């Protein structure tokens, strides 16, 4: 029961943090919680194109600063892992969240993009995990009418 509460709080805090990161102008391609195989703690993975250009340490500092300022958050900055947008793990998470339309009369059509989703497999890209992982639907930028 305490584990379920912790996971729920982490999911809620992660969504809030993700909204703050995107609101601060950091481009995020995918974000998810996963527990790497052999680890006891969940990690919050955030993929951004900024990390593809050897800026991972500076992006990590910006994201950690936002996490520290977020009141009531259950996300410890030490849990945050920054990935490049072209990292195999990030690409696998993006593919999982991308809607697939199957042309078959019995196929279940999912809306695009998918809502936040549990990922049931033990490997996400090149990362071995203790399933499941939790992948967020990214917040959409506000449009000016």
- Low-pLDDT parts are 1-5
Overall structural domain count: 1
Number of H- or I-type helical stretches: 3
Please tell me what the overall shape is: globular
Structural class by secondary-structure content: alpha+beta
The number of E-state strands comes to 6
Elements, N to C (H/E): HEEHEHEEE
Strand content: 15-25%
Rg, nearest Å: 16 Å
- The CA-CA distance between the termini, in Å, is 45 Å
- Average of pLDDT: 84
Give a written overview of the molecule:
- The structure is a single chain.
- The protein has 145 residues and is an alpha+beta fold.
- It has one domain (2-135).
- It contains three helices and six strands.
- β5 (123-124) and β6 (127-135) form a beta hairpin.
- The protein is globular and about 45 Å long.
- It starts with a helix and ends in a 10-residue tail after the last strand.
- The model is unreliable at 1-5 (pLDDT under 50).
Please outline the helices and strands.
Layout: H1 2-23, E1 30-36, E2 43-48, H2 56-69, E3 80-84, H3 88-97, E4 117-119, E5 123-124, E6 127-135
Parallel strand pairs: 2-3
Antiparallel strand pairs: 1-2, 1-6, 4-6, 5-6
How do you describe this structure in short?
This protein has 145 residues and is an alpha+beta fold. It has one domain.
Tag the structure with descriptive keywords:
145 residues; alpha+beta; 6-stranded mixed β-sheet; 3 helices; 22% strand; globular; disordered N terminus
């Amino acid at each position: 029961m305490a584990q379920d509460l912790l996971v729920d709080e982490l999911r809620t805090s992660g969504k809030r943090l993700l909204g703050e990161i995107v609101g601060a102008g950091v481009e995020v391609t995918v974000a998810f919680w996963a527990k790497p195989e052999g680890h006891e703690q969940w990690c919050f993975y955030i993929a951004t194109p900024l990390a593809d250009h050897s800026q991972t340490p500076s992006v990590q500092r910006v994201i950690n600063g936002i996490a520290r300022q977020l009141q009531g958050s259950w996300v410890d900055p030490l849990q945050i892992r920054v990935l490049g947008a072209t990292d195999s793990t990030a690409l696998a998470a993006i593919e999982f969240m991308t809607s697939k339309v199957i042309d078959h009369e019995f196929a279940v059509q999912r809306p695009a993009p998918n809502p936040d989703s549990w990922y049931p497999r033990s490997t996400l890209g090149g990362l071995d995990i203790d399933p499941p992982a939790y992948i967020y639907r990214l917040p959409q930028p506000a449009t000016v009418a």
